[in-house]
Automatic annotation (TrEMBL):
GO terms for biological process: DNA replication. The keyword Nucleotide-binding does not apply. Residues 213-224 have a biased composition (Gly residues). GO terms for cellular component: cytosol. It comes from Streptomyces aurantiogriseus. This is DNA polymerase III subunit epsilon. The keyword Nuclease applies.
Amino acid sequence: MLEDRTTTVSSSTEWPTAYPQGYAVVDVETTGLARDDRIISAAVYRLDARGEVEDHWYTLVNPERDPGPVWIHGLTSEALEGAPLFPEVAEEFAARLAGRVLVAHNAVFDWQMIAREYARAEREAPVKQRLCTIALAKELGLPLPNHKLESLAAHFGVVQRRAHHALDDARVLAEAFRPSLRAAAAGGVRLPLHECRPLTEWQDRPAPRIGQQAGGPGGYGGGYRPSSWRPARKRPACPYPNPGRYEDGKRLKQGMRVAFSGDTSVERELLEDRATEAGLHVATSLSRLTSLLVTNDPDSGTSKVVKARQFGTPVVDEAAFGQLLRDVEPADE
């Protein structure tokens, strides 16, 4: 039994009425991070309104392609050969997501991978909202050295047995989310919920065969069209002051102004969501105050790239930015 290390909510305490009625704690392992990469395993822990575990589910998925970084997830082509295809597990997966808030560590990544798989299967994932446990940890002000899952687990005394195994990662996250949820309820914290918009159409390009290198920036090619209804989005103001420019070899810091230029392998809006959830200021234009420009084509002549050269703004590609997002330094108090 997990012992909570945060304020608990007694049975007599009124639970916030605005909180969701159920959660699906999810982890997916994938062939990579690009927009044409595939899910190779998925796990879901269903939790009730107060975070108590109802049941759990796990499946392997045959990606019909090279499994990617086997040294991370341990799933070889041989292990996946007899696994079901995603359309064969889509219905059961959907039943475990339906009517619940999707909870994940770096939730925008898990959501985008799931949404794309459903779009390929010509279906929509039944998810309306997601909650990122990184964002929740920040809302609670947890004293974590960084925002890795292992640090969140250690804070709550949760023992991880098999890192990068979807079922164990989902279990660890569920056990860490429960006391986080109770602490939020006890403190009247508003949960950092984000809308999930499904993809309704998808078209893959041929994936590389085993051992073949992917072409183009960001990995495998391909593209998608999001749903036709895309309301204009006004992001909330970044609550942190701008600490200045990013320095090579150091961490990003909350409040840094980040601009994007050119095509990205991850949908731009989702990439911006990840930056916002990490506490960065997403800038639509580039100025002398911009901390960092993210582009996969630093030699292009776009206005942002030209200005970055003029102002001496640091530039990184999408892959490097993705790595930096995993460990963003908290803003100064």
